Amino acid sequence: MDTIQLQIKDLSGFLSEEDILKQSAQAAACNQALHNGSREGNDFLGWVDLPSSITDQVLREIEDAATVLRTHCDAVVVVGIGGSYLGARAVIDALSSSFDWLQEKEDRKNPVILYAGNNISEDYLYELMRYLNDKRFGIINISKSGTTTEPAIAFRLLKDQLEEKVGKEEARKRIVAITDASKGALRTLADTEGYKTFVIPDNVGGRYSVLTPVGLLPIAVAGIDIRKLVAGAVEIEKATVPSTSFDYNLPAIYAVIRNELYKRGKKIEILVNYHPKLHFLAEWWKQLYGESEGKENVGIFPAAVDFTTDLHSMGQWIQEGERTIFETVITIGEANEKVQIPHDDKDLDGLNYLEGKRVDEVNKMAELGTRIAHVDGGVPNLTIEIPKLNEKYIGQLIYFFEKACGISGYLLGINPFDQPGVEAYKKNMFALLEKPGFEEATKAIKARL
Ligand SMILES: O=P(O)(O)OC[C@H]1O[C@H](O)[C@H](O)[C@@H](O)[C@@H]1O
After folding, report:
1. Is 436 inside a domain boundary?
2. Does residue 106 have an active-site annotation?
3. What residues make up the catalytic site (predicted)?
4. 221 CA to middle of ligand 1, Å?
5. Fewer beta carbons within 10 angstroms: which end of the chain, N or C?
6. How far are the Cα atoms of 263, 266, 323, 401, 445 from residue 378, in angstroms, in the given order?
7. CB of 144 closer than 6 A to ligand 1?
C-alpha cells in the first residue's frame, strides 16, 4: 500500500454502499466543476492543479530563502492567522519531534519555529518577546490580504524588537513577507523596507494555500523536505482528475459520505487522531471545512479530538451523548520509532501482560476498541489510513482533504471558496476601536452598549 486509503466498513447500519453509489454521478459532476470552473467560486480554483504546477525553480527559491533564515536564525516566528499559519503548523508539528522546541541550541539541526499573530493576547506577545530577547531570531510575516489585524500587531512589535536588537540592515535579512502581488498594507511595507517576498496567488484562498510559499517556506525552514510533500500531493491530484472513476476517487467518496450522513442528521463531524503531533492537522482541517461549508445556515460542524487523551474527557459524550455525530479517524499504519513495554519483576502495576509489546500495539488496540464501541453506540465511523507519518503521505492527505472539501461544498450547494461571515466580528471590532472610516458603525455600536 503506497497511498492513503479510505476504510468505510464501519458505516454499515448507517449508510449502505447503494446510498453512496447513488450520489456518484453528482460527485463526479462536482469534481468536473472544480476542474473546468463552471460553478460558484471559480476564481479561487488555483489550488486544483497547484501541486503539479510547482516548478523546480519555485521550490529552489523557497529552499534558498529557507537556507538564509536557517543560517541567520536560531528561532523563526511565523506571523499569520487562519490559512496563513495553520497549514505550516499542521505539517511542521506532524513531521517534527514532539519535543523539538526543547532541544538545546547545540543539539538542534533546525531553528525553533514559533507562531504569533494568531491571537491578540498581550501576555502571549509579552512572553514571546521575552523569550526572543536573547535569541537570534527571524520573522516570516504572512497575510494574503495584507490587512489582517492580528498578524499586523504582532509584526509591528516583533519588527521593532528585531531592529532594535540587530539593526535595520541585519533585520532585513531575517524578515520574509508572503502576501498579495500588489495589494494590501503588507505589500507596501515589504516593498518599502526591501524585504524578500513571496506571492500568494490571487486564485488560491488562504485555507487552500499550504502548498504555496505560505506553507512551504516555514516548512522548509523547519528542515522538512518540501519536494517530497509536494510529490505526495501531486499523486492524489493525478488520482482524482475528472476521468477517475468514482470507485477510485477517494476524496469524492469521502465527500459523498459526509453529505449523506449530514442529510441523515449527523450534523457534527469529529476528526479523530491517536497521535498528539496531528493536533494541528485537525486545526487546519477545521478551518478548511468550517469556512468552506458553514454558510447560508447549513454545513457540518467540524470538530476534532486527540485520542486517547480526549477519551478521558470527551469520550463519554461521544459514546452516549446526542446522536448527531460521526467520526473520521486518521489512523497511522506504522510508528516511526520503536518503544517496547519492559518486564518488571514485581509487576506491582499489573502491566506484565503487556511485556514486550510495542506501545503502538496498545494504541492500536485502544483505537480498535474505541471504534467498535463508538459504532455500537450509534456513531458512524470512517477511517483514513496513512501508512506512516512522512512528507509524502502528509502531502497526499492535504490534497485529499482539499479536493474532498471542494466536492463536498458543491454537493452541499454552497460556494466553498468564500467566507463572508468572517467579516462580522471584524466590523464590530473596528467600530469599537474607532478605526478611521468606521465612524458611523462606531456610533451605532456604542449606542447598543
Ligand atoms: O492571510 P490573511 O489575509 O491575513 O487572512 C488570514 C485569515 O483570516 C481571514 O479573516 C479569513 O477568515 C481566513 O480565511 C484567512 O485565512
Report:
1. no
2. no
3. 291, 426
4. 22
5. C
6. 16, 11, 7, 25, 45
7. yes
Total count of residues recorded for the chain: 449
Give the residue carrying C-alpha cell 491571537. Answer: 119
Protein residue with its CA nearest to atom 9 in ligand 1: 82
Give the H or E element holding residue 307. Answer: none
Does 426 map to a domain?
A: no
Q: Last residue of some domain: 227, 258, 278?
A: 227
The three three-digit cell numbers of residue 277, written as one number: 503531533
What pLDDT tens digit does each residue of the chain (449 aa) get? 699 999 999 998 999 999 999 999 999 999 999 999 999 999 999 999 999 999 999 999 999 999 999 999 999 999 999 999 999 999 999 999 999 888 888 888 999 999 999 999 999 999 999 999 999 999 999 999 999 999 999 999 999 999 999 999 999 999 999 999 999 999 999 999 999 999 999 999 999 999 999 999 999 999 999 999 999 999 999 999 999 999 999 999 999 999 999 999 999 999 999 999 999 999 999 999 999 999 999 999 999 999 999 999 999 999 999 999 999 999 999 999 999 999 999 999 999 999 999 999 999 999 999 999 999 999 999 999 999 999 999 999 999 999 999 999 999 999 999 999 999 999 999 999 999 999 999 999 999 99
Q: Are residues 253 and 380 in the same domain?
A: yes
Q: Is 426 a catalytic residue?
A: yes
Distance CA 309, CA 287 (A): 22
Q: Which atom of ligand 1 is nearest to the CA of 423?
A: 10
Q: Which domain holds residue 257?
A: 5-41+230-415
